[in-house]
Design goal:
Number of domains: 2
Radius of gyration: 19 Å
Largest sheet: 6 strands, parallel
Strand order of the largest sheet: 2-1-3-4-5-6
CATH class of the largest domain: Alpha Beta
Helix content: 40-55%
Strand content: 5-15%
Number of helices: 11
Distance between the termini: 37 Å
Structural class: alpha/beta
CATH superfamily of the largest domain: Response regulator
CATH topology of the largest domain: Rossmann fold
Number of strands: 6
Length: 206
Amino acid sequence: MKTKVIIVDDHALFNDGLARILSESPDFEVIKQVYDSRHALFHCQELHPDLVLVDYNMPGLDGLEVVKQLRALGGDFKIVVISMYADKKEIQRFITTGVDGYLTKTTHARELTQDLVLVMKGKRVFSPDVVSKVPLHKDTFQLRFQLTKRELEILRWIKAAATTQEIADKLSLSYYTVETHRKNINQKLKSLSRREYEDLLDELPD
């Protein structure tokens, strides 16, 4: 079954070109091209895509606001930003909202479709230009879920299958303090399925 895609980009030439590239792939079906970002939420609610591709610099609503609206829907579709811009602060904002990838518009067509296939398999993809500006393996995880340094530390011990008491002993904390941290972590990650949670632990940097 093909991945149903909605493209949100006010530049008609790029929007149409991207739609053409995806239509030539056996893996994707473009079900809607949105040229006015203010209509993106409506079309996603109506059409239930598997993947939404979003530009950043758009009139009306910029890409960041579009992504925030789409994430608020609570659906399980993937979101990838495709932009000419790769500013560090901007990238970090998108990572915090939980995008599944950030690709630049200079990405080759074949590489683009390959990256999008990886996204649909549960991977997170970022262009080399993005990786060079943001230390993804260290910061992405913490930014995405708004974890504190202590919560991230405890999550590493959880990944190692340590009990609450063992974590407390290792970090010189009380049992109840660790339990409170674990509850806060669970609250921040509550939107994840069991499989997504396990995959997330695999992604967790050492």
